[in-house]
Amino acid sequence: MTNLILFGPPGSGKGTQALILAEHYALKHLSTGDMLRSEIKNNTDLGIAAQTYITQGKLVPDEVVIGMIRSVLEQLPPTINGIIFDGFPRTQKQAQELDQLLAEKNTAISSVLSLEVGDEEIVNRILLRGKTSGRTDDTNEETIRARMNVYREQTEPLLEYFNQQKKLVGIEGEGSIEDIQHRLRTIIDALAS
Known about the structure:
By secondary structure, the protein is α/β, with parallel strands linked by helices. The chain has one domain: Rossmann fold (3-Layer(aba) Sandwich), CATH 3.40.50.300. The protein contains nine helices and five strands. Strands 2-3-1-4-5 form a five-stranded parallel beta sheet. The longest helix has 16 residues. 32% of the residues are buried.
């Protein structure tokens, strides 16, 4: 089973690239952002609580996100080729919990593919996405920069965690969707050989 983490700051292209990779390699695409947005759209208790954090550019608490991931993993069919995690883990606690959850399934993370994108490119991408996505958190530059700061403080330190496990691969995340996809597939194909 090939389990990948697509890593990078908000707006780095994780969601776009993960969807393409999931289809190409027959992987389960697991996006915590999509899961949370669905909860918000359906006005569930979890969605209402999550909206408060997201509107402020903060991370949803670990226990909420880990609970969602556990639920999804318990429902996976045994026939899938693997999972591509998009937007998870975001903290060291989440990374450790994920390692434990996967170990319970007798599997592990194969590789962490980190999309490297400059700050101004990220702001521009998110503002552009905000014009079409309907996501209010994508239309306010101050909120976007707050999310980038939270990423740097709470999520970026995970790069060292994954590097120590010898699973981290940096990928140039600027260019066309196709160019970035080619870079990602080159790395993934090398894992399989």
